[in-house]
Structure formats: structure tokens, C-alpha cells
Amino acid sequence: MPASDSFRRTTHLFTSESVTMGHPDKVADQISDGVLDAILKEDPKARVACETLVTTGQCIVAGEITTEAYVDVSQIARDIIKEIGYTHPDIGFDYTCGVLSAIHRQSPDIARGVDHAEGKASEEESGEHRRLWRAALSEIAPDKRVFVHRDYHAQNLLWLPERQGVARVGLIDFQDAVAGSTAYDLISLIEDARRDVSPELAEAATAHYLALMRAQGARLDEKRFRQEMAVMAAQRNAKIVGIFARLYKRDGRIRYLAYLPRVWAYLERDLNHPALAGLRAWYDRVIPKDKRALQPQGDMA
Question: How many CB atoms lie within 10 A of CB 241?
């Protein structure tokens, strides 16, 4: 629709400023950028808040930087000043000027705020997470290892009704097979990341499995087996949450976000087992429920 007459303007005033790379503001910007580039080349995870001031015979580089890399700030500043063209002291400023580096490590308060904003666990929290998982897994070390498909879920299964017995189910993906827990493929099937499986259906499948195992004469401690199921399921779902989040954030594969609520729901259900009380407390504290979903950013469809 055309703009109303009240918003029409017949006179416009346009102003702009254009400066060359030798302007003091540009010199300062290029030095700060040079320090940033040099640090990120050595340490891509560095945090750099760097500003530069230049004046007659003096260059001051200041800020807060957290990194494992070492760069020669004074040399970087002088090299950039020389490259710009300040090569003669008669003009009052050149690459032989004094360079003061007033850089220090990022304050702990800011670091904690950045960590929280980025959704990162602290080193102490990460260490606690590893210890809790090791303890839980050590309790269910299987006495007997069996063939485990790992990717044993509906999307990799084919129903072949013309066949009989177990041959009615065809498997199309087994490249990740390992030797492991008898519970692993069962929980992969009843906690399918791509399909909803109700607690009632999962329990019916588990009861059916246990009944068949007993009918075959297997010696089975049901309480221990259910603990093994809970731990294996929680471990698997925690891994899937991380993989799917990475596929979105790193590779832009937005469709994986749709699976996260379902996988988190499975994980929360798994963590209700008493053997996982410590891990449940960790997740509730470090990744509260309102932080357990990623929101799409931009158009990545």
C-alpha cells in the first residue's frame, strides 16, 4: 500500500564518514582484530575482549582474554602499524612506538556468566558427571556379553510376514554392532528416539522378553536386569541427546530438534530408577527442564 501523505518526504539529508586504514580509529581496530585472529588461530575456544588506543608515540592494548595460547601482543601491534604504512618517526607515530599491553584473564564472575549463557557445565560439574556415570555403570557390569546391534529400532527393522519365527523381522543396519549387555537392544527398541513408545507398551515388551528368557531356561535376576535396563537406557539416551544437539548446532540439521523432547522424556523416566538418583539430581541441577530443548536459530530447513 502506498504511504500516506503525512509520511512522505521530499527532502532527505544523508551524511557519511569515510576514513582510510591509517585513521587512528582504523589503526586501533586492526590491532585488536590482529590480536583476536592470532589467538583464535592457536585456540579456537578462546574468549577475547580486546580494545586498542593509539596516540602520539604510544599504543595501548587492553582487555580480558582467557586462552591457553600465547601470542606476542607487542609484536602483533608493531607489525600491523608497519603494514599500514607508519614507518617514519617524523610523523609522531610509527611501528617503533611504545606498546603497553594491559591484558589480563577474564574475571571469574564474567566467566561463570558466559558459561551459563552458553549452557556449559563447569569443570567441577563435568567431573562429577563422569564419576556418577562410572559408578552407575560399574554396578551393572554384565556377567555375560552378547551380540548387541546398538541401532536396534523400528527404522532399521523390516516386517516380513511371509516368514516364520524370528525370521519375520529383517535387520538392515548393523555396522555398529558390539559385544555388550543383554538389555541394550531391548531398551533400544522400547525407547525409540524416532517413535513414541508408551510406558505400558514398553512394560509389556519387557514382560514378554523376561517370560521368553525364563521359558528358555535362562538364569535371570529380574531386579538386577531391570536395573541394567535403566542404566543402559539412560546412558544411551544421554548420548543421543548430545549427538542430536550437536547435529543441529554444528551441521544445521534442524530435523533432529524434533526428536529431543521424546529422548529427554525417556531419559527422565530412566533416571527415576533408584540406582540413578545421583545422576537425576545432577541433571536437575545442571540442566533444568526449561533448558532441555534447543530452539531453531535462522532458516536451516
Answer: 19
Name the residue type at position 147. Answer: F
Q: Give the integer Cα–Cα distance in Å for 261 and 295.
A: 12
- pLDDT tens digits for range 29-57: 999 999 999 999 988 878 888 899 999 99
Half-sphere exposure of 182 (CA within 13 A, CB side): 16
Q: How does strand 178-180 pair with strand 146-148?
A: antiparallel
Report the 10 Å Cβ neighbour count for 94: 16
The 10s digit of each residue's pLDDT in 232-266 is 999 999 999 999 888 887 777 888 888 999 999 99
Task: List % helix, strand, coil for the chain (3-state, nearest 5).
Answer: 50, 10, 35
Helix (H, G, I), strand (E, B) or coil at 99: strand
- Write the burial class of residue 208 (CB in 10 Å: 0-12 exposed, 13-18 middle, 19+ buried): exposed
Return phi, psi of residue 99, to 5°.
Answer: -120, 120
Beta bridge partners of 33: none
d(CA 226, CA 224): 5
- What secondary structure letter does DSSP report for 148? E
**What is the residue type of 130?**
R
Per residue in 56-79, pLDDT tens?
999 999 988 888 888 999 999 999
pLDDT at position 144: 76
pLDDT for the residue 299: 41
Distance CA 140, CA 136 (A): 7
| Contact predicate 218/127, CB 8 Å | no
Q: Would you say residue 196 has pLDDT above 80? A: yes
Return the C-alpha cell found at 274. 533408584
Strands 98-104 and 58-66: parallel
